[in-house]
Design goal:
heterodimer, A: about 300 residues, mainly alpha, f41 fragment of flagellin, N-terminal domain, two-stranded antiparallel sheet, rod-shaped, B: about 475 residues, 2 domains, three-stranded antiparallel β-sheet, about 10% strand
Chain lengths: ~300, ~475
């Protein structure tokens, strides 16, 4: 049987391959990444793109959610302030309407309610990071202004009916604002500013038309509960946002785990492979060394 | 009747034959490491017997030269396999540089730079962030900066692919001159072989021709056809004659449509060469199929993302209350005219972040519904029937699968080349053990023949002296 006389060069080829293998494994160990090129695992590389996309989306939503939660909390506490002010206005109006007060006391109550009106208007014009939060989409325009000199005065809304939403990564839409006109200028008895302006007009002269004043006080009570209803919308959004944020965080944790499994090198496995490759290399080197020591051909035996 | 004289002539013939056989062995040993050398074995021929008075007497031996130990079928198989391996090798090298542009993102923050998948996500996420506060200038700046990153990475990748394509093109056109010098040499060797040894073994000349064929097989796909008088026609795999008896037909190249095309005579054989094999075949597949398909994917992404995002931005109202029109569009990206070339040309033309149309048309600047619509483009099938991220994901999977397939092919073909090489070496390589054994045998027979000669000499002297030992020694 004839054999390939140049078998040593084939062994050197195997030695090169063993070394290339060791190099790859060492690179995996030092970088901690198991897939360094697409061809190593095309399917995982494709999945990795999708997973990273979701992880980054989740991450981005968590940040946005912190930002809008701040805005919603400002809206909520502002409406809380409005409720306090209105409650106070109602109790003032009730005391003015019971017929025991003289004209100057009534005027003073009128002045206090006028102060409350200013306070409520300034609360309705609250801004967050430079944007009016109760102006619908017209966030750069002061939403509420009150004309002076009328009886009663008239508060007008300069915003619009635009409602913003934020979308969670799975498509849920969460409401971010309630247009100010819906909260403060409801139709009929639901209008906070109309009720307040009327009360101010009622008490401004000191002579109270009790029937009218009582009816206006009742309107203010109705408007107060109307404000509270809209506050619930804001509170719901905060609750939804918190829930969505938690869901996203937990999904992000799971996705990150999956992505790590996909891309991170399994240190134990890679170390085992590396040790096998090293053994192979040593064996090959020994074989080549022995072949070198052994007589290369029959010629060395010929005299 | 045989005579002492005839014994002399017979044994001196044997000494001559042994000497020439020894020189063949020495030549084998000398060429043990010469590439393309085929081991030679001496030919021994028994001389015609002499018949005297009805009795046949042997007339010794003649050395009739050497025969190269070759198997033309094996050599052709090796050449063919080398063409395949060289093709997949060249293609795999080119594809490796292509896939290096799309290294998988490990997920670590430092590794995201330059990853188009992360760029796409980052770009659409910047709109999601803008939803939270649509009038915020720093969030708007973020949109433009992530758009710049996306456009920059896509156009860089496209520019690199174009550069790789022209590098591959240059490498391919450089192959022609090597092919032509080899086919010219083969044509000349054909002529020499046909005139010197039309029937038998052409030895060294044939070794040279085989070596040329083997080199040619690394470069392009060829067919070999044995012709009369030991000649050989070499054609491309599609049948264009490259080398015949004394004439060769050069492969020429010329630029057609911006890339190098190859001709034999006037026939354009570029497509045939691509599927033929050899280094040139692999380079042409990479140049005409692999790189253009990666470029096309980038072009589709660039074209569709640019067009759709621009259209959506023009559908809304920006921070200045302006809505884009055909005459004065609010474009974020430069508007591509056609899919082809759009990746390389992708860039961000918007400089003023207030021009991002976050609000729906006609709405106040605090409205975010158009921002939501832009963020939602990332979930719509706007690129080749898929969402941008899905498209990129399947693009990298497909590219990875192509590279890994070609690499697997190349490994298998190289293994088969090694196997054939081993078979061929076993037959045609110089085996020093065999040579040592032959040397030893020839040494013995030379010693024996010279011993016979000495004894014949003694006998001859005895015959001439007729018993007197002193006259002739």
């Amino acid at each position: 049987m004839r054999v390939d006389p140049s078998y040593v060069s084939n062994l050197v080829g195997s030695l090169d391959q063993a070394q290339a293998n060791e190099q790859q494994l060492t690179a995996e160990l030092s970088s901690g990444v198991s897939i360094t090129s697409l061809s190593q695992n095309p399917v995982s590389s494709g999945q990795n793109v999708l997973l990273l996309n979701q992880i980054q989306q989740d991450d981005s939503f968590t940040q946005s959610s912190n930002l809008v939660t701040g805005q919603l909390q400002v809206a909520d506490s502002t409406l809380g302030g409005v409720v306090t002010q209105l409650t106070q206005a109602i109790s003032l109006a009730t005391s003015a309407n019971n017929g025991t007060m003289n004209s100057s006391d009534v005027k003073s109550i009128g002045a206090q309610i006028s102060g409350i009106l200013d306070e409520v208007q300034s609360l309705a014009n609250t801004s967050y990071q430079g944007q009016y939060i109760f102006a619908g989409g017209q966030t750069s325009t002061t939403p509420f202004t009150t004309s002076t000199g009328g009886s009663p005065n008239v508060t007008t809304y300069n915003g619009d009916q635009d409602v913003n939403h934020i979308e969670t990564p799975n498509g849920q839409k969460i409401q971010l604002n309630v247009p100010g006109s819906q909260i403060f200028l409801g139709a009929g008895p639901n209008s906070v500013f109309a009720a307040l302006n009327s009360l101010v007009a009622d008490y401004s002269t000191g002579a109270v038309n009790t029937t009218q004043a009582v009816s206006d006080s009742q309107a203010l009570s109705t408007a107060l509960s109307y404000v509270s209803q809209h506050r619930v919308t804001i509170d719901n959004s905060i609750t939804q946002l918190t829930a969505a944020s938690e869901a996203v965080t937990s999904s992000q944790t799971q996705l990150t785990g999956a992505q790590s499994n996909l891309m991170q090198a399994d240190v134990a496995q890679v170390s085992t492979q590396l040790s096998l490759a090293e053994t192979q290399q040593t064996a090959l080197e020994d074989v080549i060394a022995q072949l070198d020591q052994a007589s290369n051909s029959l010629f060395s035996k010929l005299q | 009747m045989g005579t002492i004289n005839s014994a002399f002539s017979l044994i001196s013939g044997a000494l001559d034959a042994d000497q020439s056989a020894l020189s063949i062995v020495a030549n084998n040993v000398a060429n043990a490491n010469t590439p393309g050398y085929t081991t030679e074995i001496p030919n021994w021929q028994e001389n015609q017997p002499v018949t005297i008075s009805g009795v046949a007497y042997g007339d010794g031996v003649t050395q009739t030269g050497a025969t190269s130990l070759r198997d033309r079928v094996l050599e052709q198989r090796l050449d063919q396999q080398q063409q395949l391996a060289a093709s997949s090798g060249a293609r795999s090298t080119a594809l490796n540089s292509v896939q290096a542009l799309f290294t998988p993102d490990s997920g670590a923050a430092s590794a995201t730079a330059g990853d188009i998948g992360s760029d796409i996500t980052g770009f659409f996420n910047s709109f999601s962030s803008l939803e939270a506060d649509p009038a915020n200038i720093s969030l708007r700046d973020e949109v433009l900066s992530s758009a710049t990153t996306l456009a920059g990475d896509i156009s860089n990748a496209a520019a690199s692919l174009n550069a790789q394509r022209s590098a591959v093109d240059q490498e391919a056109s450089g192959v022609t001159s090597q092919v032509n010098s080899l086919s010219g040499e083969i044509a000349q060797l054909n002529q020499q072989i046909e005139s010197t040894s039309p029937t038998g073994n052409a030895g060294v000349l044939e070794d040279q021709r085989q070596q040329d064929l083997s080199q040619l097989s690394q470069l392009i796909g060829i067919n070999q056809v044995q012709t009369e008088n030991n000649g050989l026609s070499v054609t491309t795999t599609s049948g264009q004659l490259l080398a015949g008896n004394g004439v060769s037909f050069p492969l020429t190249s010329g630029t057609v449509g911006g890339v190098t095309h190859f001709f034999v005579g006037t026939a354009d054989v570029t497509t045939q060469l691509a599927s033929g094999g050899g280094q040139l075949g692999g380079l042409l597949i990479a140049r005409d199929q692999d790189i253009p398909s990666a470029l096309n994917a980038l072009n589709q992404m660039a074209y569709n993302i640019s067009t759709q995002v621009n259209a959506q931005n023009n559908a809304g109202t920006d921070l200045n209350g302006v809505t884009g029109t055909a005459a004065n569009p609010l474009n974020i990206f430069s508007s591509p005219a056609a899919v082809a070339g759009s990746a390389a040309a992708m860039s961000v033309v918007m400089t003023d972040p207030s021009q991002i149309a976050a609000a729906a048309a006609g709405q106040g600047t605090g409205d975010n519904s158009n921002t939501t619509a832009m963020a939602n483009l990332s979930n719509q099938a706007i690129v080749g029937g898929q969402t941008p991220t899905d498209f990129y994901s399947s693009f990298v999977s497909t590219l990875g699968a192509t590279v890994s397939g070609v690499q697997a092919d190349n490994t298998a073909q190289n293994a088969s080349v090694t196997q054939l090489q081993t078979q061929n070496n076993a037959l045609s390589g110089v085996n020093l053990n065999d040579e040592a054994a032959a040397m030893s045998t020839l040494q013995s027979s030379y010693q024996a023949a010279s011993q016979v000669f000495t004894m014949l000499n003694t006998i001859m002297a005895a015959a001439l002296n007729l018993g007197d030992q002193t006259t002739v020694a």
